Amino acid sequence: MSRSKEAAGMALQRKLGNPTKNKEKAKQTNKEEVSSTPSFQESTYHFFHGPVEISSFREKLLLWYDTSKRNLPWRTMAALEQDINKRAYAVWVSEIMLQQTQVATVIDYYNKWMKEVNEMWAGLGYYSRGKRLHEGAKKVMLSFNGQMPRTAEDLQKELPGVGRYTAGAVASIAMGQATGVVDGNVTRVLCRSRTIGADCTSPVVMEALWRLSNSLVDPSRPGDFNQALMELGATVCTPKAPRCSVCPVRMHCRSFEKVEHQMKTASNRLLGTSRLEVSPVPDIESCDYVGRCPLCLPPEENWENDLGVMNFPRKPVRKQARLERTLTCILEWEENDGEAEYLLVQRPSAGLLAGLWEFPSIVLEGKITEKKEKELLLEQLETLLDGRGNFGEIQYVGEVVHVFSHIHQTYAVYRCSLAETTGLVKKEAEDDVASSRWLTKTAFQKAAVSTAMKKIFQLYQSKESQSPKNCKGKKRKTSTDSEHNMQRSHKLKKNKQSNTGQKQLSILGIFGKSRKCEISSGP
Predict the structure, then answer these.
(1) DSSP assignment of 200-254
(2) Is the dihedral of CA 419, 423, 424, 425 positive or negative?
(3) Which of 25, 181, 253, 386 has the most CB atoms around it within 10 Å of its CB?
(4) What is the pLDDT of residues 331-378, one digit of tens each?
(5) In order of start, what are the domains of the chain with their CATH numbers?
(6) Chain segment 152-173, per-residue pLDDT in tens
């Protein structure tokens, strides 16, 4: 009997287990129950129903692409080039160039680049792209013996500047890997076709778009399919005035289905007043988890009938650009009645306009007087030339406003002439590492400088042409604080309107015969 009780006790203990462990087990069970609760991932509404619908989508899209695609040079090279490494490089270059730049702008640059790799990139914009492309190409040659990585995973892992999208594009188009891509055009097509109304830049939505793209890509023609999806977004499913009537996959578009449903409903209401029988309007499918689905339109953002399919995608409200003020000085040196040259310094390798060249500049943290601005610039110039220059008067030229995506930058522009030097030696630069350079007007126009610097130089030239050589610069008019604020407010508003839609065009190029500033250690 004693053994029976002991055995029963042991059995009960085994059943109950350790109290602490039981609590942990209960927590784990709860987690499993929560995770097994139906989520948006298990809702078929924002995804394709299965192989039949996916196959139909692929077939219709590729048929349209075969007859309607644009004739672009990188597509031709990707289709005809037999060498897989050359083919991959051609696609890689095109994808890097197409980042933040329109196709029409890229075509000429692409053709020049592929004819001569050392062709200057200046004017295409976003210098860091060219720099990373160069670094990646060198790594392929030095580390991989000229062999491009073969998969999207390896491309993204091994090559600088190659992200998830570029890796997917190169791998699918050049290597034939069945992997999807998600860019702005693909995002728009997928968000509209699957009525994804949440912030399209959020991690949840981006991951859903990548899953959608990977599920749709045609394994037999992955490169063509991805290009077709991007082509559809670029030419048909456009941000404004989409051409739904000619869309090859509109029957798979839930946004278009919703628009049609509304039109039929409105038509039936009108006809119902004069006809006894009205054709019924079938109900359209909706998400099973409305109100708690992270892919649906937020409850506070209802579908707007006037927008139609343009209800999607939804983007976050852009933050207002912060105001910044920068001092810039154009230092001129004309030696022996030769062509004038101007001092430029290189920006840091990271951050805004990384690696580009600019006139000596100082970002201000607060409002200061014009006298103080001149003092700061003079100190900077003396530092750059190690105190060996004989500077003329620093003269005020004017202001230039340039709007970046997140910064509303005002440049206070000054000029100064370098009359004489003590121990200052200028010679041809042996490499592109020099942190300061003297450039002629012609060299400046070809150099890797930002659009803002070009606008500053244009202002300087216009002022120079209006006044005799070596005349004193025009001083700023003084005004009360209230008058100054009113003038500044009016100028900001005016420039904001004039700069709307502008893009910065700045990229490091080959300077040709460039010059750098060196300080000699002796006479």
Answers:
(1) TTSHHHHHHHHHHHHHHS-TTSHHHHHHHHHHHHHHTS-SSS--GGG-TTGGG-H
(2) positive
(3) 181
(4) 998 876 678 999 999 988 777 887 789 999 999 988 899 999 999 999
(5) 45-251 (1.10.1670.10), 322-473+486-519 (3.90.79.10)
(6) 999 999 998 899 999 999 999 9
